[in-house]
C-alpha cells in the first residue's frame, strides 16, 4: 500500500529532510527503478561517481540507503517514496536485485531473532539462575534507591522553601536557580524529575504564557506529589509503583515489556507530536484499536541527526500486536508484530460521547493521579476563535484549546464552521488538537510538544 505525499513527508525525521526529499522526487534523479509486491528500489545520482542505492520495505515501511547520512529515513528514501506515490508507473515489476533481497532477508532474520529472544526470556529459568539474577538486580536497585531517596529529600526541601517564599521573585533569580536543582536530580539518577524541573523553568520564563503563575504552581505541586509518592513507594499498589518509578526515572527494558502478553487489533495511527531538548528528540505517536477502541502511546527517541527506529505515519494503520508497559492505567506500548500495513480506513472506530470521553479520563486519573495527558477522540466538535479559542460540542459545552496550540487557523479552515472529529491530548484543563478527521481523511498538525 502506497502512502500519499503528506503521509510520506510525515515520516521524515525533520523538516530539512522533508524539504530535501521533495527535491529528489523527480524521475531525472533516479535510475534502475523497480518494485515487487512488498519493496521498491532505485539508484540516485549524488555528487560522486557511484549512485546511492535506496530501498524501501513497503510492509512497515522501512528504509535503507547507501548514502552516508545518519538520518532515518534519509532524503533519498523520502524522495524515492514520493516518486512512487506520484508516478508508480516508473517502477517496473521485477525480481529484487541481490542488494535488495539481502536486506529484506536480514530484516526477516532480525525480526525472528528478536521474537525468539523475547520468548526465551519469558521461558522459566532454573531456580539457581533465577535466584542469582534476582540477587544481582536487588543489589543494583538498592544502590540506586538510596541515591534517588537522598535526591528526593533534597528536592522536597527545595520545593517547601519555594512555597514559603512564593513565586513573585522567581524570574529575578534567573535560570541558574532551576539548573542547579535539575542537575542535582540527574546526579541522583532521577532524570524524570530533572526533566519536570526543566519544564517548570520554561513556564517561569515564558513571557507569552498566560496565567504562568497558576500553571507553574500546578506543575510544582505535581512534582511534590510525585516526590511524596516515591518516598512512600511500598504503600502503593504494584501498578502505581511502576508508574511512579517510571516518572522518576527508572527504565524498563524493552525485552521485559515484549515478554508480556500482547493485545491484537487493527491499530490506527491517529496523532503524533515531537519534542526536542537540544540533545534528544522525542516522538509520541497515538494509536487506537479499531475493534477495541483502546489507546496506545508509542514513545520513540532519537539522538542528534539519527532517525527513529520505527516509522509511523498519521493516517495509516496496521494489523498487529502491542505489548503494554505495566501500570495503573497502561497507555505506553511497544509494537511486537506489525502486518498488513496500509492507509487509514475511511471510517474510524466509533467515537465516545463527550461525557464518556471525560468519564474515561476521570477514571484513568483516579487510577493514576500522575497522568499528565490523556488521548481524546471527540466527534462533532466545532472549533471557535476569539479571545478564548475552544471546541464546542453539539450540546453547547466547550473544551478550551491549550494556549500553546499553534495551528488554530488551519483547524478553523478544515472545519469551515462545520462539526469535525478532533483527536488530541487533554491535560484536565485544555486540549491540544493533534489531528482532524473529516470527509474520510485524517489531517495531521505538525505539532511540537507544548508545556
In summary, what is this structure?
It contains 13 helices and 17 strands. With 451 residues, it is an alpha+beta fold.
Q: Please, could you describe this protein's structure?
A:
With 451 residues, the chain is of the alpha+beta class. It has helices at 5-10, 15-23, 75-86, 98-122, 127-165, 170-173, 176-187, 191-204, 212-231, 238-248, 254-258, 354-367, 408-415, and strands spanning 30-35, 39-44, 52-57, 62-65, 92-93, 263-276, 280-289, 295-303, 316-324, 333-343, 374-384, 390-392, 398-400, 420-426, 431-438, 441-444, 447-448. Strands 6, 7, 8, 9, 10 and 17 form a six-stranded mixed beta sheet that branches. It has a six-stranded antiparallel beta sheet with strand order 13-12-11-14-15-16. It is globular and about 70 Å long. The two termini are 36 Å apart. 32% of the residues are buried. It comes from Massilia aquatica. Keywords: Metal-binding, Zinc, Zinc-finger. Residues 52-85 form the SWIM-type domain. InterPro entries: Znf_SWIM.
